Amino acid sequence: MEKEKDFANLQMPQIDPKEYESITCDKCGNVAFMPAMILKIIPGLLLGTGAENRILPDQILVCSKCGTVIKKDREYYNLDIDGKPITEKVENKKSDIII
Ligand SMILES: [Zn+2]
Hints:
Layout: H1 2-11, E1 33-42, H2 44-47, E2 54-63, H3 71-77
Antiparallel strand pairs: 1-2
The protein binds zinc ion.
């Protein structure tokens, strides 16, 4: 029993979250985010269900203060800072976010 406890301590170093940098909203600087849903329309033909389209929800994070979609989710879904889809082709460059 005591052995297992020691092993757990080795695997999980003590991390104090307040000592580390927070991700901030790049519009207002707020540090709190909340979940929101993005709804993707999946063509029915792709699913083999005839012409019926399906709605696929996916969770994203938005600033709890101004509602701006968090940068990593905007990059993933190709959205501008106002959360609108970017329609023109953008250059395929590497993200500067390290996760
Ligand atoms: Zn914000």
